[in-house]
Write a structure and sequence with these properties.
Elements (H helix, E strand, L loop, with lengths): L1 H19 L10 H6 L44 H13 L2 H10 L9 E6 L3 H12 L3 E6 L7 H9 L3 E3 L6 H12 L8 E4 L3 H9 L9 E4 L2 H12 L7 E3 L4 H24 L7 E5 L3 H12 L3 E5 L3 H9 L3 E2 L2 H4 L5 E4 L9 H6 L4 E5 L18 E6 L2 E5 L5 E5 L5 H5 L4 H20 L9 E3 L2 H12 L11 H7 L16 H8 L6
Parallel strand pairs: 1-2, 1-4, 2-3, 4-5, 5-6, 6-15, 7-8, 7-10, 8-9, 10-11, 11-14
Antiparallel strand pairs: 12-13, 13-14
């Protein structure tokens, strides 16, 4: 394995040197060109081989086929498939639970007959999930939930492997919805399961193809934004199939949201800006699990961290963790970095942006691009200057510059990479949720939003403990009887929440609402 890694590094160095020999064009790009071309370069290791040629042809205008003659896909460049395959193989090494699930359940084919349409980040980790679903019997069609997070070489490897993938890094808004439509609207194939990240796929089907829900057995949603949309549909009586809220499962919220962001926030900021964290004043908007991870990482690097929060419970947690709770307007003139992670809209508006200091860095760690009011910056008096991939300087008439990352979209997956091991936890949870909804007898789940059973959360966690050579303590019969538990779990009741924020959502008495 070490020799393979060494060989991969050597190949990277050789190809990077060859890349640097290519002639480059000099000159300021227009805003529209810089936006459309933001996909062609990336400073993340996972996207280093992304095609950065001068070919401006949209993938929608290309006719591509894989080696087997199949053309039911739309990606940047099918020729990148070999490199994408190596990326997927590397990811497999850090996704032990998903590989174990693939091995254990492959003979049973618990997803035989399932037709899964997915809309998630298309990365090497997602590819491992898709290939696992396929090994368990499912057919898959996939689009990207973010216009900047697709790894083109991974999309190529999936297309070469026979998956119908419609995604490339740097899609326009029109491309984004076109890709989702191509996944859904296909002759002779209709989905019966939805795997969504952000709710855009679910929204599109409700809007354009509502009759499809007659055959859809369920929805699995993994993001705060998407779950919020599902609860809105449920409250309005418009949710016509069962939905599994993966975001609030313990294995997603306490690991992906917290630990993933704790590591990837620094990676995304460093790759895009080369910023020194020590002594910098940072305000983190939101102290949910994502905010907690960001704050912990920045504090450890010597940053002075402020927190904004609407929830008094999360606010109290921030105070007791040693962070000063403020309103954004109180510190906006002095901070060096502004990070949003609330899942809300218009957290940072034009008034805040106008009052920021010169060279203030603004970025978003929430799923949706609505947290920063980027639209308010597209005015004649402001100049946009693309300084590197995913990094824009927005220049005010007096010369002040605000550094905007990924145009307000998800920083870590747009500008860097995320820890594969943590994504293994989330992907395994998603796979189990799909299996549960698909195989559930009629009547078990009604047209509502459900949490993953606690037993499944514990099973996902136990599969990952093997990596650490960890040894669980077993209850004695006497101890199990004393606690009123089964020795094999579940060890916590379903109403028990590891997250105080989720506890507030699900158990607040009616008279407080």
């Amino acid at each position: 394995h070490q020799l393979y890694k060494l060989k991969h590094i050597i190949q990277f160095a050789d190809q990077k040197q060859e890349f640097n020999k290519r002639p480059s064009k000099i000159g300021r790009r227009s805003l529209s060109r810089s936006i459309s071309q933001s996909s062609t370069d990336s400073y993340s290791s996972a996207a280093s081989y992304t095609d950065s040629s001068d070919d401006e042809t949209s993938p929608r205008d290309k006719q591509q086929k894989n080696s087997k003659g199949n053309g039911d896909f739309c990606i940047k460049n099918i020729k990148q498939a070999d490199f994408g395959r190596r990326e997927i193989e590397i990811a497999e090494q850090e996704m032990p639970a998903l590989m174990a699930l693939r091995k254990r359940a492959q003979g049973e084919k618990p997803l035989a007959g399932a037709k899964v349409v997915g809309c998630t980040h298309i990365t090497a980790q997602t590819a491992v999930l898709m290939e696992t679903l396929s090994a368990l019997g499912a057919q898959c069609r996939w689009a990207a939930c973010n216009i900047y997070s697709t790894q083109n070489e991974v999309a190529a490897a999936l297309a070469e492997g026979g998956f119908s993938v419609f995604a490339w890094k740097g899609e326009s808004e029109d491309d984004f919805w076109w890709c989702i439509d191509r996944c859904v609207n296909v002759e002779g194939w209709q989905p019966n399961m939805i795997l969504d990240d952000g709710g855009d796929l679910t929204h599109w089907i409700y809007k354009k193809y509502p009759n499809m829900f007659k055959k859809i057995k369920g929805i699995v949603e993994e993001s705060v934004t998407g779950v919020h949309r599902l609860y809105q549909l449920s409250k309005a009586g418009k949710l016509c199939v069962p939905a599994m809220n993966v975001n609030d499962s313990v294995t997603k919220q306490k690991f992906d949201n917290l630990y993933c962001c704790r590591e990837s926030i620094l990676d995304g900021l460093k790759r895009t800006t080369d910023v020194m964290f020590g002594g910098k004043q940072v305000v983190v908007c939101g102290y949910g699990e994502v905010g907690k991870g960001c704050c912990a990482a920045l504090k450890a690097m010597g940053s002075i961290v402020y927190v904004t929060e609407i929830d008094p419970i999360c606010a109290l947690q921030a105070c007791m963790d040693g962070f000063r709770l403020v309103k954004l307007s109180e510190v906006i003139r002095q901070v060096d970095i502004v990070i949003t992670c609330t899942g809300n809209k218009n957290v940072v508006v034009r008034d805040h942006l106008d009052r920021m200091k010169n060279s203030c860095i603004v970025c978003n760690m929430g799923h949706s691009n609505t947290e920063i009011d980027v639209a308010s910056l597209r005015t004649p008096e402001l100049t946009w200057e693309r300084v590197r991939s995913q990094v824009d300087h927005v220049i005010w008439p007096d010369g002040k510059r605000v550094v905007l990352l990924a145009e307000g979209r998800l920083l870590n997956l747009s500008c860097s990479t995320v820890p594969t091991f943590v994504l293994s936890i989330t992907a395994t949870t998603q796979a189990l949720a799909l299996i549960e909804l698909y195989n559930a007898p009629e009547g078990r789940y009604k047209q509502d939003v459900y949490l993953l059973p606690k037993k499944m959360d514990e099973y996902v966690a136990s599969l990952h403990l093997l990596t650490f050579d960890a040894h669980l303590t077993e209850l004695t019969d006497e101890q199990a009887k004393y606690l009123g538990l089964n020795k094999n779990g579940p060890f916590k009741p379903n109403y028990y929440r590891y997250s105080l924020k989720s506890a507030l959502r699900f158990s607040l008495p009616r008279f407080y609402c």
